[in-house]
Amino acid sequence: MRISLIGAGNLATRLGIALKKAGHEFVQVYSRTEASAQVLADLLGAEAVVQPNFLHKDASLYICALKDDALPEILKKVEVGNGILVHTAGSLPLEVLKPFAAKTGVFYPLQTFSKEREVDFNTIPVFVESSDKVVLYILKQLAADLGSEVYEINSEQRLKLHLSAVFACNFTNYLYTISSDLLAEQNLPFEVLKPLILETAAKVQSNVPVSVQTGPAVRFDKAVMDKHLALLEKHPAWKALYKELSLGIHQRTKTHQK
Amino acid sequence: MRISLIGAGNLATRLGIALKKAGHEFVQVYSRTEASAQVLADLLGAEAVVQPNFLHKDASLYICALKDDALPEILKKVEVGNGILVHTAGSLPLEVLKPFAAKTGVFYPLQTFSKEREVDFNTIPVFVESSDKVVLYILKQLAADLGSEVYEINSEQRLKLHLSAVFACNFTNYLYTISSDLLAEQNLPFEVLKPLILETAAKVQSNVPVSVQTGPAVRFDKAVMDKHLALLEKHPAWKALYKELSLGIHQRTKTHQK
To answer: Which of A236, B87, B141, B240 has an alpha carbon 20 to 30 Å from A108's alpha carbon atom?
Structure first.
């Protein structure tokens, strides 16, 4: 397909590169930041534009990968002609695109993306939505071109999926940050936790998470937990988290039928 | 060394198997659960015992891998003769062993262990402590036999290390559970989150966690967060966690100098 990208952030970058590799052609890349537009446009052999109204209306697919709140403002300046307009957001319904195009869809790859970090789309599930059967077919084909597993879900399901990803990825990364900060207080390198972090993630690839839950909270070991809480005196927010997460673990593992 | 194991749980099992592979000899395995003692004793070519006072006092090393609160009760029935007595707990000081042996130490491998899941001790850091230089030397050698990186830390540092591991492993696994429960409510398989979970853990192997933090909380995107909170109405505890973790992320990333 002839694709234009609206946005040049992490997701736009990795998705653009993957689609290019899969044989698709890129026409233009828009970003309000000229350097970002240019870097990605160069990678994709496309033209960089810094004004949304500079986007030509002859692409067959416009992939909008903007921040949620920037999307309506930018899109009202874009003419997509007969092209398909899709967004890539977990938390936006399909209908936000209705004012801007006749053929609309959602193409949501569930992964955490960084510009510089290569990811294998083979292992990434893609969630698609469209009210138009033809568009749906095209989006499924696009996912197949990337080697991705494709799922058709509606906007409500996608929002809940996004929420679950916030717990599994964003919140998890914050726990890594807390643990790294705690180690730093003892002059211990974050290095020592890396194998544990990898193994914790690896374990749930073949086990239901609740079935491999370990730690003092499972048996609500007050002696250990009190020692830990005493160490968190200087960090009231982390202390509160410790209590709530421990209580949650205890209740959840109790109700889990082993 | 001629080793007896006191305990036959996850850690005892994996550590025993690894030490056996490294050429050490096992004399006896104690567990109050006969089946557990027997299974591990068979794996290690040792004798199973279900009473602590059945342990012979001629082993050169006694590795005590019991639950924290069970330890004093059991150890007071064990005679270790001239043997070295070590425990493997993150949250117990070295001194808890003082009443039970002349030569004591701590051998704490930082990993999450399951009986059935093989782990590579090559990648696991081991934290040792002893007030006796000779014991310390022996424990370092033992870690080296396993191919493990070895660190000498005191009991206070180990407790904080254990606390950081609770955040990085136990609490993280609970977040996986929440995300899996949220998916189940939408009839979506946990399968779809697995690549995201792995990538999140993989990212911090080569990046400081705070530097790769993503998600709506970073920019405190109220529109997205309010949608998520509305989905959590039925789960007040998770809703509270969502708010606190989001606030923590926002504050921590704000103070991080990129």
So the answer is: B240
